[in-house]
């Protein structure tokens, strides 16, 4: 599979370059997270906004397979086996609410769902694509709730078509505004939802299912 042979449309409408984007660290090695009240979404949002402004960036990106400290803010990430899910399976693009999101390639709407709950995805769109003779799904989480009303299951989407917008909190799952972008080979019977993080013991399993989204984003920072 040669991903570089495909001309993907930029998911945010423009490439994520060193000029407009900075990398954000939400791993345990970031000392700021020890004093930040992550359960206070407004305070969390103020922190993210400051990080972007101080670097002169429109976007902040991270962290495929990054071990993260920020998931302690929500019980959503505790598994039934009680081992904590903190390994990120997508790439987050932190930016202003309302930022447009575009289809990177032709496909169709596989599912739409509002995954409600503090720390969840909020409004979520999953597209289905044909790539390398296989079915690939792309997931877009933390959207405007109104975006779900603009699409229908089975609807075809074209490369570069506007499909959604980065949603505001609290309707986006109560996160600072960002897009969770994830690629998935096998939905494993999930409908309208798919794990965006996994526990350490599940990394090998999910890494095989969820390829690096930067194969499409192609950001030089990732």
From TrEMBL:
Listed GO MF terms: metalloendopeptidase activity
SUPFAM superfamilies noted in UniProt: Duplicated hybrid motif
InterPro entries: Cell_wall_metabolism_enzyme (IPR050570), Dup_hybrid_motif (IPR011055), M23ase_b-sheet_dom (IPR016047)
Lineage top rank: taxon: Bacteria
Record-annotated M23ase beta-sheet core domain positions: 87-184
Lineage: Bacteria, Pseudomonadati, Bacteroidota, Cytophagia, Cytophagales
Protein name (Swiss-Prot/TrEMBL): Peptidase M23-like protein
PANTHER family registered for this protein in UniProt: MUREIN HYDROLASE ACTIVATOR ENVC, PEPTIDASE-RELATED
Pfam families linked to this entry: Peptidase_M23 (PF01551)
